[in-house]
């Protein structure tokens, strides 16, 4: 199992670059062509969410991604360093849209979009930051 790690400045322009890299690694990991748009959109949504949170709370800290092809799964973890609430059983309890610089309800909508696009999603909000882990099936063993 190989892991690709990527970190980028909290600038919206870098989200596009992250989507392109994730798509290339997903393809190489054996994710079906028919799923690549879902991978690209879900990762873009998670990265945009992290960028907005960083721009508001810690603009000098990078957003981090981990991409891995384990067995017959392709997994992406997007991590920010904006402290969350770890008392909600690992899920952010009704995030305050003002905390992330979004309009009312947009933060929850973004998480719903991610959940609808990824095959499996886990969101962990802790005092160290928020991690969104997404995964999709891969047709073949990873070659990353």
From TrEMBL:
Superkingdom of this protein's organism: Bacteria
Alphabetically list the UniProt keywords: ATP-binding, Kinase, Nucleotide-binding, Serine/threonine-protein kinase, Transferase
Pfam families linked to this entry: HATPase_c_2
Q: Which InterPro entries match?
A: Anti-sigma-factor_SerPK (IPR050267), HATPase_C_sf (IPR036890), HATPase_dom (IPR003594)
Task: Give every Histidine kinase/HSP90-like ATPase domain span.
Answer: 8-136
**Example GO molecular function:** protein serine/threonine kinase activity
UniProt-recorded name of the protein: ATP-binding protein
Q: Which organism is it from?
A: Actinomadura darangshiensis
């Amino acid at each position: 199992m190989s892991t690709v790690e990527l970190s980028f400045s909290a600038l919206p322009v870098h989200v596009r670059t992250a989507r392109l890299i994730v798509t290339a690694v997903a393809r190489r990991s054996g994710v079906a062509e028919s799923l690549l748009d879902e991978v690209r959109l879900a990762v873009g949504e998670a990265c945009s969410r992290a960028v907005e949170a960083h721009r508001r709370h810690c603009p000098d800290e990078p957003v981090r991604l981990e991409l891995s092809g384990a067995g017959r799964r392709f997994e992406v973890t997007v991590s920010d360093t904006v402290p969350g609430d770890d008392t909600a059983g690992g899920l952010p309890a009704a995030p305050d849209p003002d905390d992330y610089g979004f309009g009312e309800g947009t933060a929850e909508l973004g998480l719903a979009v991610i959940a609808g696009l990824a095959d499996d999603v886990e969101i962990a909000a802790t005092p160290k930051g928020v991690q969104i882990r997404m995964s999709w099936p891969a047709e073949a063993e990873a070659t990353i």
